[in-house]
């Protein structure tokens, strides 16, 4: 495969963009594929090579690269009217109404411009609402590039996970292991009166994909209720993907106080949102006293795209299609792993999938095949003890082999996967059975 133009573009990029990219995860080895354009479930790179694309913008592109006609029409009409105003428009109200209608925990919405901005604002709102400073997060969870959540370690020994974040931020952030109810109880025993919120992805989707064990979120819900803390679900990835229009919270049957959204909610444009109970949401200025603002927030073109995106999903078999192809991918890769790499674990649910290069089982157990429907953390599953339960279980996998060997091998075969072992992969409405077959053939060869 000829990659001369991608390589040359990366050389140029390295001179003017730090690390050659505008988001760290894009700096894949040995150099990124520079995309020229998309086509359905595929992208065509600067050298004219075609790839089956499972990156899908890291989650927003529920329809792939061919946007349905009503969505295109809505985008073009909004853009033709003028890009933005800084004054309210009807489309913001309509988009918020749609979300509130479909996600029972959401009564009000504040739109922002990214998932990061949504979690920044949600944390500030939770702190303002409770008058407390501490937040509990999950080890291996991700909530964007923000000071309060770029923190790692154990409660009591937590530190910033990147240069540039003052220690004082880490002081207020308590990372606990996902799926460990005892660790959650302990952190509330020690700090309950100071905890403003638990901020958690309902499904860890930035650490492989880790499903919650039965009862885990219910425990978090109870602890928050007992201590007057807020439960904040970060559904930036899972929102309007897992569990369809009801989101992961609907699928799991847990009601958070606040939810952060991003990705799909903007239909491929930069949008984030915070949604939740009206009495909490009204803490935001100008209704309340927690300052929040943004020049581009509720951008009419992005609102038009997001609203048309979700409306199309409400009226078509979008989730049936993407979930079915997701199931086939997970099932097919499970069969291939059983033959060729029996320690590896296939994870995911709905339209999310990933292969975690687990070595000898993160927790032990027999090497039987995974649940083809995706990991459900069903205790009766023969691999229950073997399936990752925490971010640390995934971090112990052969992450280097995934990045340095496997992903590159797949790229060479025309299959574009996400940049590292930790990031989920995404099925779109534009993907076909032929894309799944081609991908499984490549897995066979690469594994
Ligand atoms: N929360 C979660 C769960 C995410 O996966 C991400 C991004 N992948 C973010 C927040 C941050 O979103 P953004 O990159 O749009 O700022």
From TrEMBL:
Sequence positions bearing N6-(pyridoxal phosphate)lysine: 263
Record GO terms (molecular function): glutamate-1-semialdehyde 2,1-aminomutase activity; pyridoxal phosphate binding; transaminase activity
Keyword Cytoplasm attached: yes
Predominant location category: cytoplasm
Broadest EC class assigned to this enzyme: isomerase
Gene Ontology biological-process entries: protoporphyrinogen IX biosynthetic process
Keyword Cytoplasm: yes
Recorded GO CC terms: cytoplasm
Signal peptide location: none
Cofactor(s) listed in the protein's UniProt record: pyridoxal 5'-phosphate
EC annotation from Swiss-Prot or TrEMBL: 5.4.3.8
Pathway: Porphyrin-containing compound metabolism; protoporphyrin-IX biosynthesis; 5-aminolevulinate from L-glutamyl-tRNA(Glu): step 2/2
Organism domain of life: Archaea
Stored NCBIfam families: PRK00062.1
HAMAP family referenced in this protein's UniProt entry, alphabetically: HemL_aminotrans_3
Protein name: Glutamate-1-semialdehyde 2,1-aminomutase
Source species of the chain: Halopenitus malekzadehii
